From TrEMBL:
The chain crosses the membrane at residues 36-53, 73-94, 106-124, 130-151, 163-187, 199-221, 267-289, 301-320, 332-350, 356-376, 383-405, 425-446. It is a multi-pass membrane protein. It comes from Phenylobacterium soli. The lineage of its organism: Bacteria, Pseudomonadati, Pseudomonadota, Alphaproteobacteria, Caulobacterales. This is MFS transporter. Pfam families: MFS_1 (PF07690). Its main location: membrane. GO terms for molecular function: transmembrane transporter activity.
Length: 450
C-alpha cells in the first residue's frame, strides 16, 4: 500500500496537490492504469493475437488440409508439435537479440519474419513442406511471448503486473474467438482472388497481417519509459522510482546469476504450473474443432465458430480473476482453486454423453483454466529479479511450452489408437490437478521470499 501511495503522490504533486485526498489518488492511479492499458498493453495484445492466430489456424485448416495432403491424425499431431521444437530452440537467441537490437527493431524483425513464413504455408504441397514451415514458424515466433512479458515488466510495477500480464494473455482466447469465425469465413471463399483452396487462402491472408503490423510497431513501441510521450513527466518519475525501487529490492535480496536462478525451487515449481497449463491450452487449441466435428454433423465453418465458445470463457476468466487477484494482492489461491475446478469439469466432459453436455463441461473447465492462466505470471515475476529476470522468464516459457512438443502428438496417437478423444481429455484433467496441488507450496515459498 505504501508503494501505491508513494507512486500516486508524485502524480498529484504535478497538480500542486501534495496532500491529495484518497479519491484524488485513486483517480491518478486509474488514469495511469488506463494509459498503460491503451498505449502499452493493447498494442502488445494485438501483436500476440496475430502471433497466436498464425500458430493455431492450422487447427481450422486441418478440417480440409489433412485430407488434401493425406495427413493422418498422428502425422498432423507431429506437424503441430514440430512448431514447438523451433519455438524452444530459438528462445534464448531471441532473448539475446532483443537485448542487443533494442525492443523496436527486434519486434519489427520478429513480426516480419513470422508473417512471411506463415503466409508461405499457403503453398505447401506435401507433408515435408508442412513440417519444414511449421518448424520455421516456431523458430520465428519463438521469443515473442517471453520478450513481450519482459518488455512489459520494464514498464509496469509489481502491483499492476497481474492485470497487465493477463491483458496480454487474453490475446490467445481472442485469437481463437475471432480467428475461428474469420478462418471459417476465409476457408469458405473458394472464389478468392488468388484462386487458391479455402484453407490456403486463409494462411495467405492471416500471414500477411503481421507483415503490415511489423511496420506499424516501429511507430507504436518505444525503447524506454522516458521516451513515452503519452506519459506526463510526473507519471514517468513515479513509475521509474517504483520500478527502480523494486529492482533494487530484488537485487539486494536475491542472487541474480542465471545459475543461481536455476537452483531456485520456485523456478521449477513455476515450470510445472506452466507446463500443465500449456498442455491443456494446446489440447484445446489444436484439437477442439475436430472434437466438435466428431460430436456433431455441423459444417466446417460452424465447427470453427463453435470451437471459439470455450475461449470466450477463458478470456473472461483471465480478466476477472486477474482483476480480483490484483485487488486483493493474493496469487496462490487465485491460481489453485480455478486449476482444481478445471480438472473436475474436464474429467466430467470425458464422462458425460457426447454433445451439448460435454461441450458445457468443456466451457466451464476452459473458463477455470483461463482464470488460472490470468494470474500465473504474477507469481514467478514476484521473486525473479535483477539481471536474471529475463532469463528466468525465458526458462519457464521454454520448459512450459515443451508441452507443445509432447501434447499434440500424444493426443494424436491416443486418438488414432482408441478412436476417441476421451483419453486425451482425461490426461488434460490430470495435469490441471497437478497444477492445483503444486501451486500451494509454490505460493508459500514465493511469499516467504518477499
Amino acid at each position: 500500500m505504501a508503494r501505491v501511495e508513494s507512486a500516486n503522490a508524485d502524480l498529484q504533486a504535478e497538480d500542486g496537490a501534495p496532500g491529495a485526498s484518497p479519491e484524488a489518488l485513486s483517480r491518478g492511479e486509474a488514469q495511469l492504469r488506463w494509459k498503460l492499458t491503451l498505449r502499452l498493453v493493447a498494442p502488445i495484445t494485438l501483436l500476440i493475437i496475430l502471433n497466436s492466430l498464425d500458430r493455431v489456424n492450422v487447427s481450422f485448416a486441418a478440417l480440409r488440409m489433412n485430407q488434401e495432403l493425406g495427413l493422418s491424425p498422428q502425422a498432423y499431431g507431429f506437424g503441430v508439435s514440430i512448431f514447438f521444437l523451433g519455438y524452444i530452440l530459438l528462445q534464448f537467441p531471441h532473448a539475446m537479440s532483443q537485448r542487443r537490437l533494442g525492443a523496436r527493431r527486434w519486434i519489427f524483425l520478429t513480426a516480419f519474419a513470422w508473417g512471411v513464413v506463415a503466409a508461405s504455408l499457403a503453398f505447401i504441397r506435401d507433408a515435408r513442406a508442412f513440417y519444414a514451415l511449421r518448424f520455421l514458424l516456431g523458430a520465428t515466433e519463438g521469443g515473442l511471448a517471453p520478450g513481450m512479458l519482459y518488455y512489459l515488466s520494464q514498464w509496469t510495477p509489481r502491483r499492476l503486473r497481474g492485470f497487465a500480464a493477463a491483458g496480454t494473455m487474453l490475446a490467445v482466447p481472442i485469437s481463437v474467438v475471432l480467428g475461428g469465425p474469420l478462418s471459417g469465413w476465409l476457408m469458405a471463399m473458394h472464389d478468392n482472388p488468388a484462386g487458391l483452396a479455402g484453407w490456403r487462402w486463409m494462411f495467405l491472408i492471416e500471414g500477411a497481417a503481421p507483415i503490415v503490423l511489423a511496420f506499424v510497431s516501429l511507430v507504436i513501441f518505444k525503447e524506454r519509459l522516458e521516451d513515452a510521450g503519452w506519459l506526463s513527466a510526473a507519471e514517468k518519475r513515479s513509475l521509474r522510482a517504483e520500478l527502480d525501487r523494486e529492482a533494487a529490492e530484488l537485487e539486494h535480496r536475491h542472487a541474480v546469476r542465471l545459475a543461481d536462478t536455476l537452483r531456485q525451487p520456485g523456478l521449477w515449481g513455476s515450470i510445472v504450473l506452466w507446463f500443465c497449463l500449456m498442455s491443456g491450452a494446446y489440447g484445446l487449441l489444436f484439437w477442439l474443432p475436430m472434437v466438435i466435428k466428431q460430436m456433431s454433423s455441423v459444417s466446417d465453418a460452424h465447427a470453427s465458430a463453435l470451437s471459439a465458445l470455450p475461449w470466450v470463457g477463458i478470456g473472461a476468466g483471465m480478466m476477472l480473476n486477474a482483476w480480483h487477484s490484483d485487488r486483493t494482492q493474493e496469487r496462490t489461491w487465485h491460481f489453485a482453486v480455478p486449476a482444481g475446478i478445471a480438472a473436475l469439469f474436464l474429467a466430467a466432459a470425458a464422462t458425460v454423453p457426447a454433445g451439448w453436455p460435454a461441450l458445457v463441461c468443456i466451457l466451464v473447465g476452459a473458463t477455470a483454466m483461463g482464470s488460472a492462466q490470468g494470474v500465473f505470471w504474477a507469481i514467478p515475476t514476484s521473486f525473479l529479479g535483477g539481471a536474471a529476470a529475463a532469463a528466468g522468464v525465458t526458462v519457464i516459457n521454454i520448459m512450459g511450452n515443451s508441452a507443445g512438443v509432447v501434447t499434440p502428438p500424444l493426443f494424436g496417437w491416443l486418438r488414432q489408437a482408441t478412436g476417441s478423444f476421451q483419453p486425451p481429455i482425461y490426461a488434460m484433467a490430470a495435469l490441471m490437478l497437478v497444477a492445483a496441488v503444486t501451486a500451494v507450496p509454490l505460493g508459500r515459498w514465493a511469499k516467504a521470499r518477499l
